[in-house]
């Protein structure tokens, strides 16, 4: 279990996170959702260990890790731009981290992950020969072979569209469930957060607006911000789709409107 207790962070005296407390159970998929500048990446980086807190503590399985450096926390992140090595092929990227830590994953485990992510046909391709969705899967495989205790994903679907997005979403869910892997995802897209996660943490101006299961958020938004920002965005999306399929109405004098 990961616990954040009264986390505070300011940059140049400007508060960015204000008294964030929450728990994340082992094996849960959590999305951190909020508008631009609300503090999502700062929170992710604090969990990862890149950014230090000003106040508060972080506990992992009841052990205080607040002062433990990133490399010793055993968490791992897939960055938004995937950060793959362009001079290596897909397979070399996937196994790169095992060079000095061979015993973390066996060859068989690596093969299983490659299979799960459907990457067999792409292993010898160079990074610039891969599509966005394929790059994303290589980045996921590269992170997962290191068997992180917690998987952090920064806007994992933002560069993908349509069917590919749905397929990656399903793979992230399947992998998290199969490996009982605690997964924390940063996103600004309510639809993504609500369909991908067990619980969604909605933050606004550095404070928790609501932290609940997707259904609870939709049925019982606890404040105006959640209603306005999250639910209205979903409604706009829904209306846009409906309007695409509405038949053109024709009037007596030949006028029409949509
Ligand atoms: N290293 C930094 N130094 C100073 N200010 C920072 C730093 N990092 C972030 N901030 C500020 O902290 C606030 C929160 O930034 P953060 O990147 O956490 O937001 P975000 O919700 O991830 O935004 P976005 O969705 O646009 O990426 C912003 O006002 C940002 O300008």
Q: How would you characterize this protein structure?
A:
With 258 residues, the chain is α/β, with parallel strands linked by helices. 36% of the residues lie in helices and 25% in strands. The protein has 9 helices and 12 strands. The C terminus is likely disordered. The strands form 3 sheets. The chain has a 6-stranded mixed sheet, with helices on both faces. The N and C termini lie far apart (52 Å). The protein binds adenosine-5'-triphosphate. The site of adenosine-5'-triphosphate (ATP) has 11 residues, from helix 1. The site of adenosine-5'-triphosphate has 11 residues, from helix 1. InterPro entries: AAA+_ATPase (IPR003593), ABC_SmlMolc_Importer (IPR050093), ABC_transporter-like_ATP-bd (IPR003439), ABC_transporter-like_CS (IPR017871), P-loop_NTPase (IPR027417). Keywords: ATP-binding, Nucleotide-binding, Transport. It comes from Breznakia pachnodae. GO terms for molecular function: ATP binding.
List keywords for this structure.
single chain, alpha/beta, Rossmann fold, 2 domains, six-stranded mixed beta sheet, 9 helices, globular, disordered C terminus, binds adenosine-5'-triphosphate, ATP-binding
């Amino acid at each position: 279990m990961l616990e954040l207790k009264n986390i505070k962070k300011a940059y140049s005296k400007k508060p960015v996170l204000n008294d964030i407390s929450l728990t994340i159970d082992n094996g849960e998929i959590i999305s951190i959702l909020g508008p631009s500048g609300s503090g999502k990446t700062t929170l992710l980086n604090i969990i990862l260990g890149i950014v230090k807190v000003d106040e508060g503590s972080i506990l992992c399985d009841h052990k205080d890790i607040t002062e433990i450096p990133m490399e010793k926390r055993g968490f791992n992140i897939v960055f938004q731009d995937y950060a793959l090595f362009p001079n290596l092929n897909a397979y070399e990227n996937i196994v790169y981290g095992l060079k000095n830590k061979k015993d973390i994953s066996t060859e068989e485990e690596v093969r299983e992950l490659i299979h799960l992510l459907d990457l067999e046909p792409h292993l010898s391709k160079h990074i610039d020969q891969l599509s966005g969705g394929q790059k994303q899967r290589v980045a996921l495989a590269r992170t997962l072979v290191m068997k992180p205790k917690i998987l952090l994903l920064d806007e994992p679907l933002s560069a993908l569209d349509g069917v590919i997005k749905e397929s990656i979403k399903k793979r992230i869910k399947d992998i998290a469930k199969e490996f009982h892997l605690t997964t924390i995802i940063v996103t600004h897209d309510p639809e993504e957060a609500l369909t991908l996660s067990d619980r969604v943490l909605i933050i606004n101006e550095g404070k928790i607006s609501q932290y609940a299961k997707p259904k609870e958020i939709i049925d019982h938004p606890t404040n105006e911000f959640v209603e306005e920002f999250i639910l209205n965005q979903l409604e706009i999306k829904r209306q846009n789709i409906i309007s695409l399929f509405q038949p053109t109405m024709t009037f007596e004098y030949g006028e029409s409107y949509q």
